[in-house]
Write a structure and sequence with these properties.
With 131 residues, this protein is of the alpha/beta class. The protein has one domain: Response regulator (Rossmann fold, 3-Layer(aba) Sandwich). The model has no long low-confidence stretch (mean pLDDT 90).
Length: 131
């Protein structure tokens, strides 16, 4: 008989730069999170339609491949799941307003910031499972 794998929190990472996306995904995976990755807001929106209620974190760059940007995606994510944690990052000043509850991280941010966020989310996720 096989052992069942414990249910882990899932994050959606949306970044058009493959190296940055891979680094963020690795940091989150090392922090015991499952990760879905996309390079465009349009692809991420399809993920949100299918799995938005089960996601705990969306981390997105402002500039993305496709026609929508990360701020627009943040609004979409909050419509699908108002409780989802949304982090929008950019190396430039933010020119659009984020939805309530979303946070902005100016680049460059430290990899430790991602690890701390993943740990915070994992603790919150495990507490929800105990309730």
């Amino acid at each position: 008989m096989g052992q069942s794998k414990p249910f882990r929190a899932t994050a959606l990472v949306v970044e058009d730069d493959p190296m940055q996306r891979e680094m963020i995904c690795l940091l989150l995976e090392e922090s015991d999170m499952d990760v879905i990755e996309c390079e465009s807001a349009e692809a991420a929106e399809l993920v949100l339609e299918e799995a938005g209620a089960s996601l705990v974190l969306v981390m997105t760059d402002v500039q993305l491949a496709g026609h929508k940007n990360g701020v627009e995606l943040a609004h979409v994510a909050k419509r699908f799941n108002p409780d989802i944690d949304v982090i929008v990052t950019s190396g430039k000043p933010l020119r659009q307003q984020l939805p309530d509850g979303a946070r902005f991280w100016a680049k460059p941010w430290a990899p430790l910031d991602v690890i701390r966020e993943a740990e915070r989310m994992s603790i919150a996720w495990s507490r929800m499972g105990e309730a």
